[in-house]
Amino acid sequence: MKRVLITGASSGMGLQLAKDYAAEGWQVVACGRDHEKLQLALSGISVEACVFDMQDADEIKQAVAQLAPCDLVILNAGNCEYIEDVLNFDAARFARVINVNLIGTANCVAALIPHIKSGGRLAVVSSSVSFLPLTRSEAYGASKAGLDYLVRTLAIDLAPHNIAVSLIRPGFVDTPLTQKNDFAMPGQVNTDYASRAIRRGLAKGQSEISFPFGLITVLRLLSWLPQGLWRRLAQRMVRTES
Ligand SMILES: NC(=O)c1ccc[n+]([C@@H]2O[C@H](COP(=O)([O-])OP(=O)(O)OC[C@H]3O[C@@H](n4cnc5c(N)ncnc54)[C@H](OP(=O)(O)O)[C@@H]3O)[C@@H](O)[C@H]2O)c1
């Protein structure tokens, strides 16, 4: 039986992936930082729970020490906070987002690489935010751009060790993370769609999985614009929003 470990399995995309892989007959190791929340979210579904805060490297190592090897590890957990007032740049908020999304993921990579079977796969959930600099995304965008580099480099360095690597870049997905947003989210999809796109991409062995196609195509085209032109367009979008 195939075995998958998923971080951030207590809500949103991670929860949907845990449910869907369990329904497909995989053994699922569902990770979260709050045992009760994790149990409540996954009640009735047969999973192995694993509890840690990804900011704590030692806690992760202890939590996963006895884990059986996995065919697939999906590092999905993350957080989003925006820089609301650029003139009073909140460096503590910036550090918090980098600590969870980038350093936290690196902590998971360190603890979990030894638990990936030879021939297995490591997948990391980044974001489509890193296609373009977007307003108020100084912290979130930097954390995800950092993840993109980390994952693409791991793909080079883990290949000789027979571990494949996938970078996952979702557009807007309806989850607790985006339910806090107060702006339009073009092309938003639900967690069913996201889970299907991710599982299909991973099953095909894709090194990059970006979705939904329409939004990603627009972002790709915009990312080819000269930076100055994109800056003026982005500023106009900010003025329209406010
Ligand atoms: N939703 C979108 O539109 C979207 C788009 C692109 C990328 N993403 C990325 O997709 C991933 C999943 O997000 P989601 O939208 O499904 O959001 P979500 O429902 O808020 O889920 C986030 C998960 O990460 C966990 N988490 C957060 N901080 C953690 C920490 N310090 N240690 C351990 N676990 C932690 C949360 O645990 P708790 O339940 O304990 O808080 C939760 O299980 C994130 O990396 C996010 O950046 C989301």
From TrEMBL:
Region forming the signal peptide: none
Q: What GO cellular component entries does it have?
A: membrane
InterPro entries of this UniProt entry? NAD(P)-bd_dom_sf, Sc_DH/Rdtase_CS, SDR_fam
Q: Does the keyword Cytoplasm apply?
A: no
Q: Which PROSITE patterns match?
A: ADH_SHORT (PS00061)
Question: What would you give as a GO molecular function for this chain, any one?
Answer: oxidoreductase activity
Keyword terms, alphabetized? Oxidoreductase
Q: Which domain of life is it from?
A: Bacteria
Gene3D superfamilies attached to this UniProt entry: NAD(P)-binding Rossmann-like Domain
Q: Which family, according to the similarity comment?
A: Belongs to the short-chain dehydrogenases/reductases (SDR) family.
What's the protein called, per UniProt? Answer: Short-chain dehydrogenase
Source organism of this protein record: Oceanisphaera avium
